[in-house]
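I hope you will forgive my troubling you with a question about protein structure. The matter concerns a single protein, recorded as an amino acid sequence and a row of backbone structure tokens. Please examine both parts with care and let me know of anything in them that strikes you as inconsistent. Here, with my thanks, is the record as I have it:
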Amino acid sequence: MATFTAIRNKKQSASVLRSVIEYVEQEKKTRWGDARLVTGHNCVPQSALTEMQMTKNRFRKPGGMQFYHFVQSFSADDNVTPQEVNAIGLEFAQRQFPDFEVVVATHVDTGHLHNHFVVNSVSCADGHKLHQSYSDLLTHRKVNDEICLAHGLNVLEQPEQQRKKKRMKPGEYRAGLRRDSWKLDLIQAINEALEYSITPEDFIENMEVEGYEVTWVPNRKHITFTCPNGRKCRDSSLHDETFLKENLEALFVYRQATDFRPQTPEPDEGWLGELAYGWLRVMADLERDANQPLLTPPIWTDSKQRRREALKKLAMGQKFGGEEHHFEQTL
């Protein structure tokens, strides 16, 4: 079983491309016995940077997006050798990027084998520029599953359509009462992005694909979302504790610690209900590791009855504390 994710590189330049290639090709990460697990598609790994730059210059497209970076991670339970992992990565590059130069580097220095793909942004065949969207990422994941199945590996089970929730989420319901349709669109985009996000970087990238800008600064309390229509909205204005920065941070820590699988359907109790269920186990694991600082458990509403009562009060024009509530059309 292998998962396929995109690595977000906001800075794009020739020097950054050089740094990324040097990183993925490191000897200590790719050496397995007598073999160096670095291969190239449409290029020679040792001269990949030069070849990619020559392609850009030949077609007069040296600027803009320089490269795309992806990671294909295999489960520790997979019965697969490092050489097979590299062969699977090369097969993927040949299928998905037939006319582009790609470096495929297999890293063997962690608890699980994984491939890095560095893809030139300009085709070496006809010079057209490569553009990647969220739908392209989903296509990559589908092809990744097909290749894994052909090699006898398991794949992630696709979520069943009937398991998806049909009812409106609490945050959507509250926003609906305020008649903020743009906010409903934002909430829907956040929920969909969370289904495929393991890290804050994944989440920000998935939101940007949908046209939303996310300002997530470590030393700021809140996340600010900028919608395609230019409206700005803080996490605290989305009427749902799930989207608070502190809760999303805790959620991503939990997902990384428990090997979260993308495309997992949302639990009936919501993502933070899933977090509450597994938080004690994660904390116990962290406590056993003296190098890991203890984390503060997140804040979430764990009572369905409390949520129903809050919605009922809001529908009657009251704030949660019981005082009168005046609806407004703006934040």
